[in-house]
């Protein structure tokens, strides 16, 4: 059973969803996307598409920034995504990638006088970072792209060159992930994750104005910390050296879930092992992402696959 794509306003086998070499977005990065988890619950035989609506609301913001006309409501986008997952027949965790783009086959750098299009694909989800055992990071020599350059609060394709430069440099130098600073030297985020630290009993994370993608997982963790652990999160500028002296650090993201950071720039964070707050948040997050905590029904879009694979 081959997976499907929603492409040119219809469901087609993924192998038939192709774009031309002159497509504007391919040349200039004029597109925005989302990454959404479809978590497979083998007990209930269903997917939990986690915070689907929130992902599409963020994507609509990205489309506004790029002047992309997305002719669907959030409800319709959620419905189409559910249908796609159902049709594709997977019975394992999936990653859903909607992408809105400047689709004209035309050269010339601009946002105006171009057609727009939209597709959704669904694929499997191999582990991205070692969330179980934690990761070793470096501060990147690259700086985070600024809101005055390519707004990071929209998940804009072109700006991911910034993340790719940082990620590959980190891996080339023997680390698992990069942490990027802003132009003025404050902590921004990982190449594809938001960052939190626990310092003097407080949970701290950089604010939206420090060029982060304002993550859905970040928001989930802030709400879980408050509701379940009675721990407020302080959103404030963070110095690089605060990471070195923190008791705990972790990443959050759709691909990364809650990933402990054990070491930064060859300095162990806290004890160098997974911290207590991080471990509690990992456990709470693992429950909600499959739709098992009944306190958060608005976060779950449940889908049962129509086709059972043999
Ligand atoms: C640059 C960047 N920051 C943060 C995140 C985490 O955001 P979310 O939790 O919405 O996946 C992502 C992943 O989408 C990302 O690409």
In the predicted model, the low-confidence regions spanning at least 5 consecutive residues are: none
| Cα-atom radius of gyration | 20 Å
Helix share, percent: 25-40%
Count of extended strands: 17
Following the backbone from N to C, one meets helices and strands in this order, namely EEHEEEHHEEEHEEEEHEHEEEHE
The number of helices is 7
Would you mind describing this structure in some detail?
This protein is of the alpha+beta class and 310 residues long. It contains 7 helices and 17 strands. The strands form 2 sheets. Strands 8, 9, 10, 11, 12, 13, 14, 15 and 16 form a 9-stranded mixed sheet that branches. Strand 12, helix 5 and strand 13 form a beta-alpha-beta unit. The N and C termini lie close together (9 Å). The mean pLDDT is 96. The structure holds pyridoxal-5'-phosphate. Residues 35, 163, 189, 192-194, 213, 215-218, 252-254 line the site of pyridoxal-5'-phosphate.
What descriptors fit this protein?
310 residues; alpha+beta; 9-stranded mixed beta sheet; 8-stranded antiparallel beta sheet; 7 helices; 17 strands; globular; binds pyridoxal-5'-phosphate
Quick synopsis:
It contains 7 helices and 17 strands. It has 310 residues and is an alpha+beta fold. Strands 8, 9, 10, 11, 12, 13, 14, 15 and 16 form a 9-stranded mixed beta sheet that branches.
Topology diagram in text:
Blueprint: E1 4-7, E2 10-13, H1 24-28, E3 31-33, E4 36-41, E5 46-50, H2 52-65, H3 74-88, E6 94-102, E7 116-124, E8 135-143, H4 160-172, E9 177-181, E10 187-190, E11 194-199, E12 202-205, H5 216-229, E13 233-235, H6 240-245, E14 248-253, E15 257-264, E16 267-268, H7 276-289, E17 300-303
Parallel strand pairs: 8-9, 8-15, 12-13
Antiparallel strand pairs: 1-2, 1-7, 3-6, 4-5, 4-6, 5-17, 6-7, 9-10, 11-12, 11-14, 14-15, 15-16
Helix pairs in contact: 2-3, 5-7
Bound molecules: pyridoxal-5'-phosphate.
